[in-house]
Every structure is written in C-alpha cells, then in structure tokens.
C-alpha cells in the first residue's frame, strides 16, 4: 500500500503565518504525527511540534486536524479522506508560539487557583485510609485526564468569548470534580467554582466530552454534578433563609450527595 | 552574544518525571528554594507511560511479604551486580513512599477491605505492585505534579540544559535555553539533582519518548562524574511489533500478571522449555499451576511468563530467529484465552487493562479480549547510569546528585518490573533531602563568565556554520545511530559487532560537528535534536565500551561469544568516565563486601 498524501500544515508565529503543502509517502498503520515527523526529517527540519509518548498517554500533540481538535498520535490516516489535503493547524483557543505549538501556560496557572487536596485524618493507626473500590472508580475516571487541553480548545466560552479571567474551563472542572468527589477530601471548592471559576458560564453543550481522547464524560459526570452542588449550597431557598437568620458558616459546610 | 537571564536557587532539579518531582517536593519541604527544569510541559515526562504498578512490600494481599523478600528478589533479578545498600534502602522505604502518595491524593485500586491492592509481576515472589488499572505512572506523576505546583518551587517548562557549570570540582549551576524563544538562561545553585531518565532514543525500537536522550548522564559525564553498569540496557520483552508506526510501544507486563500467556506460532508456551536454575524452585512446571498463581492461589508457583525481563526477551528472540515467530516478527501474547477459565472475561480484561485494550483497538484494529497480540522486545530502560552514593544519591562530583533512571546501582544487571516507580520515589526523596542539606552546608560557588561564554558559543555553533562543508541533518544522524545500536549493541551481542558500532559512533561524532539546520532559535526542533545527538553519542559509547569489557553474559547483558556467567565478572561493576583528554575510560571496580545480615537474607530466600 504505497501511496502519498498531501498535508496542509500551518506555519508561522504570533505575527503571521500561512498554510504550506507537503507530500508524504504513507504506509500501513500511519498516524498524523508520523507524517509530521517525516516532514520534519526530510522537508522542513525546523517545523515546530509538541509531542512525547506517541501512544496517547501524555496529551502533548494536540492540534486541529481537518478542523477537529484531536491528538496527532491517535489519528490514523486510514480514518481520514486522503483524496484531499489533510489540514493540520495549532489549537485556535491558545496563542500561537510557532507552527503547531501554542502557549498553553494559562491552563497550568488556572489549576493552581483550585484549592489543593486536603484529606481527612487517617483511618488506621498506621497512617493509612480505607476506601471502597466503587468510590475510587468514580474519581479514577477524572484522574485518567492526560491534560491535552482539547476540551479547553473546543469550549466556546474560551474559544469564542476568551473568558480566561472568569472561566476555568472543562479541564479545570474535571480536576475540581476529582478533588470534590475524592473519598478522603475535606475541602470545599464550591464557592470558588461559582465565583472565581465561572462554572455558571457552561451551558452544557457537551463539546468537551465529544473531543476527549480519554472518553471522560466531562459534562455528565464532572460538570453537571458540580453545578448541582453549587446550586444546592448557594441557591437552596431554605439554606439561604437559615443562613440569613444565623449568618453562621452553614454555607461553607461541605455537602455530599 | 552570550546574553542570558539569571536564576538562583538552593537546589536545582533537572527533569520533572517522578524522581525529579519527588526530589523537588522534598527539597522544598526541607526549606530550600527550588527550581525544576524540564524539556517538556509539566506532567508529560516518561513516568506518565509507566503502566503496571509500583513495587512495595506492603503485604496487603499476601502477608508473607516484607522488605527482606523484596530485597532478595531485587538482588536476584539484578544478578547481584546491584548496589546492595540501595537495594536495602529501596525495599525498606518503598512502603512508606507509596502510602505517602495516598496522603497526597493518589487513588490506587483497592482490596475487598479497602486497602491498597497489589498485583503480581515478573521476578517478585508475592503480589507486590500497587496500581491503578494499567495507568499507574499517570496517577503518580499527576499526584506529584499537583503537589509541586502548590509548593515554593519555580517550574521552568520546555527548557533544555546544555551544560553543568563547575567551580573547581564542585557543580554550582547549569546553563541552558528556553525552547519558546531560544533565549539563554544561567541557573546558579548550591546543589543540583539530575533526574533526566534514560537513553532509549539511542535505539530504533524503543518504548521511550523523544526526551530519553541520556541528557543527565552525558551532562554528569562531561562534569567529571562516573557512570556504572552502562552495558546493562533493559529490553522489555513485550512491545508492539505491528503496525510499523507503533513498533516498540510498550505492552505492560500486567497482561502476564493477569494471566496472559506467551506462545509461538505452533501454539506452544515456549517459556516452559527454558527455566533458569536460579528460578527453578519458584516457577510452575505446568500450565495449571501457573494459572492458579495468577489467580491468587498461595500454594502455587508463578508461571514462567513472569520470569525476569532479560530472560523472557531472550527467549522471544530465540523463537523468532528459529522460525517459530508470528507473521510480523514477534510472538503471541494471549489474554483472551482466560475466557475458558473465568466468566465475564471480556469485562474483566477491559477493567484490568483498559489502556492496553484501547491501544490495540486504536492502533492495530485488534480486540485483545478476542484475539492474541503480536509482541516483541523493545528498548525500555537503562539499568545502569550515573554512579551515586547509596544513602545520599550524591555522584562522584560534589554538589551533584542523581535519582531515578539516570542513576545506576539499584537494579544491577536487570530491573524487576515495578521497581522503577518505587526507585524514583525512594531515591527522589533521598536526593531531595541530601541536596537540600548540601545546600545548607555550602555557600554559593563562583560562576566563571568565561566558562559560560564558551558553553553558549558551542550551543549555537550549529547556526553559524557556513555552507562551505556539506551540512548533515541531525535527524538523519540520530537515525543512523539508532540503527547502529539496534543492530550491533542490542539484545544479543558479540565482540566484532560492538567494535563496528564503536567505529560508527566515532564517525558519527565527526559528522555531528558538521550538522546544519534551518530557521532560527525560536522553538526549533532541529536545534534541539542536534543538542540531544551529542548526548546520545556519549551514552552510546559508554554502553559499547562497558559491554565490550564485560566478557560474560549476565542479566540484561548477553554475549554469544561469552554465553555464560563468569564468576570473576560477577564481582565487579564496569565504571566509565571521560578522562582528562576527553577520551572515555572503562575500569572494573570490585563490588564492596555485603554485610553478613544482608548475605544471610539472600541465602534464606534462595
């Protein structure tokens, strides 16, 4: 099966750029990242691209392939129409550094604003805890996240409206959900999620879930339960009334379903 | 030309995989100001790919397990070339290091009574690997990363260090550049921890990511440090062999731990035909007993598929060479067969081995719950590395520490699966602790501006070459090196082939001086590859020279011209260093006498 395909790759930097076409010989089982590597080795040795494991485990090689946010290492050429050029461009939501590499540092900064893990005292004298497999499985889904930021890229609140200062994005909510639903955690992040991290902006269009390469049910399992908890804590009429009457710390108490 | 930003820390850590992150956490907790530099984004280092689990004798699944058994297993697996002090500390401290991760938010799979679950792995006598399905490395790196970001640690993502800076014999800093703009940076520090991982990219077929170019080992070597056991490169027996674009990607040993079996094209479980004497007492002699072991029967012995990696890899090579391999040059790894034994096998496999299911489905159009996989050996790990003190992790250069894969000693001639994740926790912690202590006890050294200027000049020479000579491509040279190491210094070695490899490395060194690249310093992978190439050439030469000197077969090092163990070589480590003239020297260093109590443990566990 020796044939060739055209790859239309965006090349440039923060100031300017354009699509350039490259012809690549293709072989069985090839993925988009293989094609990019061939282009680097033989046609454009300074073509900038981020990648590490080439096995879908590290989440480095995110890009928009034929307009769709995907991992280059997990996109097989035989799943793409090769009778027309395959376009590869950098994630649109983040500032371009060079070619296919974008500045994703905002994602790392926003993570730090989410309160860290804070466990209850150990259950056993030897300093260990007891947890049921069923309870850990619920958050293991969120902990599968490989931080590829495709969900952040596709989310319209960030992509179209650039609300980076008010909205933390799906990846951050998955991180927050993993902490909030952690069987040992005692921290309360709901007020932050409402005020600082703007979870209310999410109108559950589920675009993030669709692009997740780890198939995490971001909207259903992370964002919606967090939204419900925020509502329970901050908009429950009875709690609000009691809160007014006693103006204590009830609103700060951690609620669990 | 040599303009640069300056940074100052008590402790500088190079590398942000498990060992680097753990060292940074520890040094910060000890009150040191800490900087951590990594070639990629935070959380992308190779630890992320570790699958099977982290070995620690917690004894949650089999109460007969304890540090002594783990120590003896590690020494036996390493064919006794190990630094026994490291093997002792590792076995003793791994349980505490694993439990501590739980306090930091890691969620391991559980036993029925809610404790950390442990699974079987090659060379471990009892179920010992704490795990999270088959993505344990991701769980660990994320736990450590999410701890570091809240500490007083400056993180420098996508930076490359090109040289260490010395004041006399001592290391007092590092010099490098940021990928984004290509700008130079001088990092001054009182102590420096190398945690840069291995050298897998010296080979064509590898499970390692692009970062694995032996940077820390080459940096240490150029700063005067000694290396040890560099001939002991681990080839993991089960990498993917098909399709070509994914050849080398790891297939976790956990597949075999969960009952997966290896067969040749005749359907024979060939590992039953060749069980090494050292393991005969602990290995099942029939298929039924092997199966019972994987299902937790404490009276059963482990199946031969769970023999050490060096042995399993060699047996696979033999099957393929003698014409009993699979169509694409591997053998069959079958987990689907367990449906004959347990109900809901399909669900069970998907739950225990989710990434493997996903990986084969996606890359090879193969459903591992229904069909056998095709697998073959892949370059996986460097058992040797920078020579360190067993307690403090300090190298032979004052102020320079090393931990994790880039440090050598714990694993001897062959590492047991699961011992790398525990290695990076135990010795990452120790390196961080002792580096912070060194920083407290020593003032900042002097950085010679002329030394810095020279380093900077060398780093950008590649841009300033005229077109008078025919330019070489850094990618092409790296490829040639990989092919050379794969063919001539691989799983099965001979004197003649390794001599040829050395000649080739010499000519590649000369050609590397003529590398020419396009573009400028801004995020330029050709430049990065050219810098990596220099490091790969140093570590490849160290592998070759050590392997030539070890005229026997032991652990991961196998020579057809000396196919047996030789007592004389069992008493020494191969130590390499760069001499004053820049030429690499190899010497044999006697292994220190083991204390009586450790010797006794090994005798008792035989």
Report on the architecture of this protein.
- The complex is a heterodimer of chains A (257) and B (606).
- Chain A is of the alpha+beta class.
- Chain A has helices spanning 32-42, 105-112, 133-143, 150-154, 156-159, 170-180, 190-195, 207-211, 218-234, 237-246; strands spanning 3-12, 17-26, 62-65, 68-71, 86-89, 96-98, 101-102.
- Chain A folds into 2 domains: 3-102, Ubiquitin-like (UB roll), CATH 3.10.20; 105-252, Fumarate Reductase Iron-sulfur Protein, Chain B, domain 2 (Orthogonal Bundle).
- Chain B folds into 3 domains: 4-235 and 380-441, FAD/NAD(P)-binding domain, CATH 3.50.50; 239-378, Flavocytochrome C3, Chain A, domain 1; 449-554, Methane Monooxygenase Hydroxylase, Chain G, domain 1.
- Chain B has helices spanning 18-29, 67-77, 84-103, 136-148, 215-222, 254-257, 287-294, 309-321, 345-352, 354-364, 419-441, 449-460, 474-488, 495-512, 525-549, 567-570, 596-604; strands at residues 4-14, 34-38, 54-55, 118-119, 129-130, 153-157, 159-167, 170-178, 184-194, 227-228, 233-240, 261-263, 331-334, 373-382, 385-387, 400-402, 407-408, 572-578, 584-590.
- In chain B, strands 1, 2, 6, 7, 8, 9 and 16 form a 7-stranded mixed sheet that branches. In chain B, strands 17-15-10-18-19 form a 5-stranded mixed sheet. Chain B has a 4-stranded antiparallel sheet with strand order 11-14-13-12, covered by helices on one side.
- The mean pLDDT of chain B is 96.
- Chains A and B meet through α1, α2 and α3 of A and α3, α4, α10, α13 and α15 of B.
């Amino acid at each position: 099966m020796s044939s060739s395909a055209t790859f239309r790759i965006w090349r440039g930097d923060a100031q300017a750029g354009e699509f350039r076409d490259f012809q690549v010989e293709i072989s069985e089982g090839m993925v988009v990242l293989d094609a990019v590597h061939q282009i680097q080795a033989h046609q454009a040795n300074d073509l900038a691209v981020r990648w590490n494991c080439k096995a879908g485990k590290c989440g480095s090689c995110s890009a928009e392939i034929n307009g769709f946010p995907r991992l280059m290492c997990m996109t097989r050429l035989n799943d793409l129409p090769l009778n027309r050029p395959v376009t590869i461009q950098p994630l649109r939501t983040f500032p371009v550094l060079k070619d296919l590499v974008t500045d994703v540092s905002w994602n790392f900064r926003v993570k730090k604003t989410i309160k860290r893990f804070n466990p209850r005292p150990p259950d056993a004298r030897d300093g260990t805890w007891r947890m049921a497999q069923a309870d850990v499985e619920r958050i293991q889904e969120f902990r599968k996240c490989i931080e590829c930021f495709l969900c952040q890229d596709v989310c319209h609140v960030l992509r179209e409206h650039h609300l980076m200062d008010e909205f933390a994005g799906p990846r951050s909510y998955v991180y927050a959900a993993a902490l909030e639903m952690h069987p040992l955690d005692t921290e309360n992040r709901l007020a932050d999620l409402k005020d600082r991290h703007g979870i209310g902006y999410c109108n559950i269009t589920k675009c993030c879930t669709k692009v997740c390469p780890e198939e995490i049910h971001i909207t259903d399992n992370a964002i919606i339960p967090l939204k419900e908890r925020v509502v329970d804590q901050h908009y429950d009429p009875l709690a609000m009334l009691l809160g007014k009457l006693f103006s204590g710390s009830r609103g700060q108490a951690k609620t669990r379903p | 030309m040599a303009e640069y930003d300056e940074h100052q820390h008590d402790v500088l850590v190079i590398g942000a995989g498990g060992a680097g992150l753990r060292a940074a956490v520890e040094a910060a907790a000890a009150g040191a100001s800490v900087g951590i530099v990594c070639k990629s984004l935070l959380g992308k280092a190779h630890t992320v790919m570790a699958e099977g689990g982290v070995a620690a004798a917690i004894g949650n699944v089999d109460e007969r397990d304890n540090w002594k058994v783990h120590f003896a297993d590690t020494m036996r697996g390493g064919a006794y070339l190990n630094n026994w002090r490291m093997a002792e500390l590792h076995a003793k401290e791994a349980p505490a290091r694993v439990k501590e991760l739980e306090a930091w938010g890691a969620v391991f799979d559980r036993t029925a009574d809610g404790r950390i679950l442990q699974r079987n792995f090659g060379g471990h006598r009892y179920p010992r690997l704490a795990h999270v399905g088959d993505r344990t490395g991701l769980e660990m790196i994320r736990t450590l990363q999410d701890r570091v970001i809240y500490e007083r640690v400056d993180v420098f993502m996508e930076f490359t260090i090109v040289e260490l800076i010395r004041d006399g014999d001592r290391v007092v800093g590092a010099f490098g550049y940021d990928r984004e703009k290509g700008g130079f940076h001088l990092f001054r520090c009182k102590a420096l921890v190398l945690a840069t991982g291995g050298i897998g990219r010296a080979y064509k077929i590898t499970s390692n990511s692009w970062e694995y170019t032996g940077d820390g080992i080459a940096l240490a070597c150029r700063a005067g440090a000694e290396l040890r056991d560099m001939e002991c490169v681990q080839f993991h027996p089960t990498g993917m062999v098909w399709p070509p674009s994914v050849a080398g990607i790891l297939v976790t040993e956990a597949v075999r731990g969960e009952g997966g079996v290896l067969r040749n094209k005749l359907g024979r479980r060939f590992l039953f035909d060749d069980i090494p004497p050292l393991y005969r007492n602990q290995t099942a002699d029939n298929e039924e007993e092997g199966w019972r072991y994987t299902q937790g029967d404490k009276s059963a012995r482990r199946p031969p598929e769970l023999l050490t990696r060096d042995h399993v890899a060699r047996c696979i090579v033999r099957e393929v060479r003698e014409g009993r391999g699979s169509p694409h040059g591997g053998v069959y790894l079958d987990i689907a067969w367990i449906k004959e034994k347990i109900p809901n096998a399909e669900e069970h496999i998907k739950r225990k081995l989710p990434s493997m299911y996903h990986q084969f489905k996606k890359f090879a159009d193969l459903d591992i719950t229904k069909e056998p996989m095709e697998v073959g050996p892949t370059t996986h790990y460097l058992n040797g590395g920078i020579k360190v003190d067993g307690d403090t992790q300090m190298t032979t250069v004052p102020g320079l520490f090393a931990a994790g894969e880039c440090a050598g000693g714990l694993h001897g001639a062959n590492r047991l699966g699961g011992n790398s994740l525990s290695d990076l926790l135990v010795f990452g912690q120790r390196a961080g602790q002792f580096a912070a202590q060194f920083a407290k006890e020593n003032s900042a050294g002097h950085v010679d501006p002329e030394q810095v200027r020279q380093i900077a000049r060398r780093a950008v020479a590649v841009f300033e070459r005229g077109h008078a000579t025919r330019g070489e491509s850094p990618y092409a040279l790296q490829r040639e090196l990989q092919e050379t190491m794969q063919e001539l210094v691989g799983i099965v070695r001979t004197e003649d082939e390794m001599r040829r490899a050395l000649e080739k490395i010499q000519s590649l060194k000369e050609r590397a001086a003529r590398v020419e690249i396009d573009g400028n310093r801004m995020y330029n992978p050709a430049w990065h590859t050219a810098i990596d190439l220099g490091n790969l050439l140093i570590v490849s030469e160290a592998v070759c020279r050590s392997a030539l000197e070890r005229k026997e077969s032991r652990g991961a090092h196998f020579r057809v011209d000396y196919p047996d163990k030789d007592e004389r070589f069992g008493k020494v480590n191969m130590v390499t260093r760069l001499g004053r003239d820049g030429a690499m020297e190899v010497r044999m260093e006697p292994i220190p006498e083991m204390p009586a109590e450790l010797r006794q443990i090994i005798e008792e566990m035989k």
